[in-house]
Design a protein that fits this description.
By secondary structure, the chain is an alpha/beta fold. The protein is 37% helix and 30% strand. The chain has a single domain, classed as Alpha-Beta Barrel (TIM Barrel), CATH 3.20.20. Helix 1 packs parallel to helix 3.
């Protein structure tokens, strides 16, 4: 399994939210590029980037911070947040983003996901963020009637390279991931699934591994910044 350290961008800073609440943001770094470099230096093979402002605005907002991160690292980066048209997808891929994450448009314009995956094979992921099994969009502010597994299955033939599944109720709460729901999703689809939300200890990583589900990786944010999860130990555990 791959460990994806998360860098969530708000107003040019590296922050973490509590359960997706933009008013409950904790600033961890004024230099996201330096933070990304430290993750690379610790041995990470990827970094996970989210433009939080962009997710609400529907267009990129923290572009300068993302570009600074790309200039500072050599490992690949995946990016989500406010990416809702083909021009923006193309622009980020041209700028060096290895994998673009499409969330809101996976619900509102699934055909765009299909067209993007066909144009950029292996470069398009779908981000499914859910409360109580139902997908939420537009920076987690809008509840939908889309069930996570059903929506994931609808992209089985689209050429999507990964599904990033976030349990919103666990995100930033340091309460552990929703292992059962994440494992169930990974078993239900052939698309590689990346777990996100609530990972806060080595025990959480062990639980995800012990689930036996074919998980591709796991995203962690706040626990790495708080020191609750030792990055080098986590990398060693997941690569063992």
């Amino acid at each position: 399994m791959i460990l994806y350290p998360a860098i969530d961008l708000k107003d040019g800073q590296c922050v973490r939210l509590l359960k997706g609440d933009m008013q409950a943001a904790t600033v961890f770094s004024d230099s996201p590029a330096t933070q990304a470099r430290s993750f690379q230096d610790a041995g990470c093979d990827w970094v996970h980037l989210v433009d939080l402002n962009g997710a609400f605005a529907g267009q990129p907002v923290n572009g300068a911070a993302v570009e600074a991160i790309l200039a500072a690292i050599d490992v690949p980066a995946q990016l989500g947040g406010g990416i809702r048209d083909m021009d923006t997808i193309a622009r980020w891929i041209d700028h060096g983003i290895a994998r673009v994450i499409l969330g809101t448009v996976a619900v509102e314009d699934p055909d765009l996901v299909r067209r993007a995956a066909a144009r950029y094979p292996g470069r398009i992921a779908v981000g499914l963020d859910a409360r109580n099994g139902m997908v939420a969009t537009r920076g987690w502010a809008k509840e939908t009637d889309q069930e996570v597994t059903a929506l994931a299955r609808s992209f089985e033939d689209a050429g999507v390279c990964a599904i990033i599944y976030t349990d919103i109720n666990r995100d930033g709460a340091m309460q552990g991931p929703n292992v059962e729901a994440t494992a169930a999703l990974a078993r239900a689809v052939d698309i590689p699934v990346i777990a996100s939300g609530g990972v806060s200890s080595l025990e959480d990583l062990r639980a995800l591994k012990a689930s036996g589900a074919p998980l591709d990786g796991v995203i962690s944010g706040r626990a790495l910044y708080d020191g609750a999860l030792d990055l080098r130990q986590a990398l060693g555990l997941l690569k063992a």
